[in-house]
Amino acid sequence: MTLTRRKFSISSGAALLAGFPSVRAQSEGKIILGQSAAFSGPAAQLGIQFHQGAKLYFDGINAQGGISRQQIEIRKLDDGYEPARCVENTQKLIADNVFALFGYIGTPTSIAALPLATKAKIPFIAPFSGAMALRDPFNKYAFHVRASYNDETALIVKQLLNLGLKKIAVFYQNDAYGKAGLDGVNLALGLQSLKPVALATVERNSVDVAPAVKTLMAASPDAVVQIGAYKACAAFIRQARKAGYGGTFYNVSFVGTQALADELGKDGAGVVVSQVMPSPYNASRAIAREFASAVAAANNKEVQVNFSSMEGYVAARLFAEGLKRAGANPTRESLMVGLEGIGSQSLGGFSVSLSSNDHVASSFVELSMLTGDGRVRT
What we know:
Blueprint: E1 2-4, E2 30-37, H1 44-63, E3 71-78, H2 83-95, E4 100-102, H3 107-120, E5 124-125, E6 142-143, H4 149-162, E7 168-173, H5 176-190, E8 198-202, H6 210-218, E9 223-227, H7 230-242, E10 248-251, H8 257-264, E11 272-275, H9 286-298, H10 307-323, H11 332-340, E12 343-347, E13 350-354, E14 366-370, E15 375-377
Parallel strand pairs: 2-3, 2-4, 4-5, 5-6, 7-8, 7-9, 9-10, 10-11
Antiparallel strand pairs: 1-15, 11-14, 12-13, 14-15
Helix pairs in contact: 1-10, 2-3, 4-5, 7-8, 10-11
């Protein structure tokens, strides 16, 4: 089903938020969550959109009086998608005694922050990353909403091979994120006794892609799998096409679908992005109708209906599901027990499952395609 975010038909009948039990926040009548994310720089839209989606859900709860008259607040700090700044922010949030860390954006930043959270025994919830390094070995303090990059790249490789495309190149960010995605591609190709025909990198927060374009185009790949953020990936696509490349481009979800579409405009036609959230543009799922209704009700032009903001919304909803199981006087430990107690259930058609030995809520992945005129087809 193909719908624009501008033309998306809003369902007015979604029941939003109800039935939360009484809880007590850790201070001053508030439950404070700490978020370090990119709110400036080339990856800014990822942090901005995720935060807006999460805040949208929490604002809905707070408008109804909060959870047992307690308000939920996200205290956000900008790290510019740089690990050193993320560490400083995390240390500050821990010193401020936030209840949990929530919605960190990116693999290199999350990998830097998770050991600090673990040492402080603070839950680290819903990082916007599919890196296996955050999941294996199991960490009792880390809770993941999204599928892994291994899940995403397995589907991408399966799709390419089904299409008969075996000459696959990889353009990846030269850090823990890019290498996590590359590992996933290598794993999926290796199962078919294949390997990438060429590799090239770009530095984090850079759009200097000319050397990578030259390297990969020389290999004449059938397709290029991109493991990067939206500005660099968009720059690569534009330059590769300018150089005459006629193959296809596949991206993992972290690229930021709407941000990539906005960067590329008409040049986005045919670009594929794997998704770890149900389409917010497809009204067949209740979670999409609920999210779109919440956006409409907020009447805030800054909040967009897109995949990144929907992930923030779903992450906030999963947090709330855990919190309502955490008891009348929640602690960090009881929050974790509450999240583990969610078990298997559907959040408006989006299946999640958490337990004491499995903190990855979803393995959902599907492919979407940009049409080049502001639409995303799934």
